[in-house]
Automatic annotation (TrEMBL):
Residues 12-112 form the Roadblock/LAMTOR2 domain. InterPro entries: Mycobact_SerProt_Inhib_Rv3364c, Roadblock/LAMTOR2_dom. This is Roadblock/LC7 domain-containing protein. Transmembrane segments: none annotated. Pfam families: Robl_LC7. PANTHER family: SERINE PROTEASE INHIBITOR RV3364C (PTHR36222:SF1). Gene3D superfamilies: Dynein light chain 2a, cytoplasmic. SUPFAM superfamilies: Roadblock/LC7 domain. It comes from the Bacteria.
Length: 147
C-alpha cells in the first residue's frame, strides 16, 4: 500500500501569545497521532533547551501524544469508554507541562518554568484554543488507494 504525504502548514506562529507569557518556555501543537504541527519557544531563554529545534519539537510531540493516550486509557478505566481527556498537567523539579485538547485530532502543549503562573497559562491556552481551534485541528488522514 502506498500513500501520499502532504506537507502540513507550520502552525508555530499561532503560539506566540503563549510564549510571551512570563515563565513559558515552549509551546507545541500536536496531532492526535504525535505529529508536530507547529512549535515556538520564548525569546532569550537559557538552560539545556534554550530553543526547541524541529527534531526536539517532534520528540516532544510524540511524548505528548503518549501522555494523551495514557490519559485516555486512565479516563476510560475510571469513568467508562466515553470519557475523554481534556487536560493533563505534569510537574517536574524544573517546571510544568500543560497539555489540552485543541480541536479535532489536535492537542496543545506548553512547557513552563517553576515561576510561571500555571493558572494563567492554562487560561490563556483555553482562550487560544477557543480563538483559533479550527486552525489547530488535524483531521484524520485519508487512506490512499492501493495501486
Amino acid at each position: 500500500m502506498t500513500g501520499t504525504i502532504t506537507r502540513l502548514p507550520d502552525l508555530g506562529w499561532m503560539l506566540r501569545p503563549l510564549t510571551e507569557i512570563p515563565g513559558v518556555r515552549h509551546a507545541v501543537v500536536v496531532s492526535e497521532d504525535g505529529l508536530r504541527l507547529g512549535h515556538d519557544s520564548a525569546e532569550n531563554l537559557s538552560g539545556p533547551v534554550a530553543r526547541l529545534s524541529v527534531a526536539e519539537a517532534e520528540s516532544l510531540s510524540a511524548a505528548c501524544a503518549a501522555m494523551t493516550m495514557t490519559g485516555r486509557s486512565t479516563g476510560a478505566l475510571l469513568f467508562g469508554r466515553g470519557a475523554t481527556t481534556r487536560q493533563l498537567m505534569m510537574e517536574t523539579d524544573q517546571g510544568f507541562v500543560l497539555f489540552t485538547h485543541a480541536g479535532v485530532g489536535a492537542h496543545l502543549g506548553v512547557a513552563t518554568d517553576l515561576e510561571a503562573d500555571v493558572g494563567l497559562v492554562a487560561q490563556q491556552m483555553q482562550l487560544l484554543v477557543a480563538k483559533i481551534g479550527a486552525h489547530l485541528s488535524s483531521l484524520p488522514r485519508d487512506e490512499a488507494p492501493a495501486t
